[in-house]
Amino acid sequence: MQITVEKLKELLxxxxxxxxxxFQIALMESLSTKKPIxxxxxxxxxxxxxNYGKILADFYHTEYADLTKYNIPLDLVKIIPExxxxxxxxxxxDRDGVTLSVATTRPDxxxxxxxxxxxxxxxxxxxxxxxxxxxxxxNMYKGDLGDQVKKLIDDLKxxxxxxENIVKLVNLIMEYAHDNRASDxxxxxxxxxxxxxxxxxGVLHEAVIYPLEIHPxxxxxxxxxxxxxxxxxxxxxxxxxxxxQNQISFDVRVSILPITNGENIVMRILSESSRxxxxxxxxxxxxxxxxxxxxxxxxxxxxxxxxxxxxxxxTCLYAILQILNKPTVNIMTIEDxxxxxxxxxxxxxxxxxxxxxxxxxxxxxxxxDPDIIMVGEIRDNDTASxxxxxxxxxxxxxxxxxxxxxxxSFPRLIDMGMEPFLIASxxxxxxxxxxxxxxxxxxxxxxxxxxxxxxxxxxxxxIAKMIEVVVKRKDFQNIEFFKGEGCKxxxxxxxxxxxxxxxxxxxxDEIKSLVTRKATAREIEIKAREQGxxxxxxxxxxxxxxxxxxLEEIIRVTES
Length: 560
Hints:
Distance between the termini: 55 Å
Largest sheet: 7 strands, mixed
Strand order of the largest sheet: 13-12-14-15-11-16-19
CATH class of the largest domain: Alpha Beta
Number of domains: 3
Strand content: 15-25%
Oligomer: single chain
Radius of gyration: 26 Å
């Protein structure tokens, strides 16, 4: 018998683990989407998986098993058939002599555990695990993606008209990408076959290759899912669809582009869990976090997030919006596309066929009595002009900007035709950022530089000087760095997840004066450094010394 909502509320809300408002939000979404409330509470970041697991384990008078910390042999998993395991919400994860350790979300399922004891002839020790932990472990039944695809291809050769296998192939690619935390799927036709690559933690990894002759059928299937024109092969098309798998659901943004070998497909996975960041979780230095919070507390002005595509700019703005999202304010956005729905925020998506651009959408939004506005991107003069005027007339406006760093954001806006004095009067803070991979916590180990690495650093004066500034010493020989050895959890890469490196420029009176007289980006940067701004390289090097990321990763991201 599953725990009741009332009992769950008593355990989590009355104990102070989850605010009642957040519990109610999760409950309402659970009722409308039929998703379990415990899954939503963890997915939305209202409580950590570990805390939830320990609280519920205490309630059931059992122990908590964090399955991410176990390297579970496949022969143990298969002791319970997959269909039974999914139906009973239980999986075998360890064995000690004649005792099987079983993790479950239903520790009071006594009848099933008695039957399991009888069938195996072994004693059963029951552990509680979280729904997400269990779902990830159940993915082990799928086996290797390459093997699965090979079986489907062999079936297609034997029965070429079997469209069901094309559906299964597309579903396999989607599920494996999601299970491996991929942000993007690249399906690329080549002369020798079609390469499927997953972007994981910002880096592309080839997952599988399938024959070129079945690619048109894969494209057709994805166009059907995305509601795109199936008879159009010579023009670019963009679409979107929702994918549902067991208790996991995510949106997918699709881009199809004709190339010399066929149609190239890139899909962005818009997972619900990927937007649930608090501002404190993004990796800001304490002093930078204070600057961003000060800017967000102002009633008007602009907060800009600057960086290249894929640097986490939108995630940063969503994290700020979570702080600002209160019943007393009206928040409206214009985005391209609306990647994640946020409660109590009115979100509008750009639609070029309906002539709903950033500029036109922003014009309409300012007539809707907003207190706070988010513009997905400032990319032209019209949008920049309306955004600046809105920021100067009592609105707090958040937006992204393509710029290399904080100081070059000002020339970028001037190039769009904005008057320098208007920019200086409206911008409160600029957050420039990149994303770096985090060292896997399961296989992290200390590491000292060898002679070749030391020599390479000495040749890179920029890196060498920054290490010296951060560690306050010139001898790097005995400095302890960190790296991941590679394990099952991180797919042997040594990395798991990403974190931001930032530079935050607060627009002071001195910087306003420089902007007004069209000072160079270098002059603005020097003044900001004098006033305490730290560079992205400095922030990155701090994270290297703290064991969050590696020296190689900082060099890769900041030197490119």
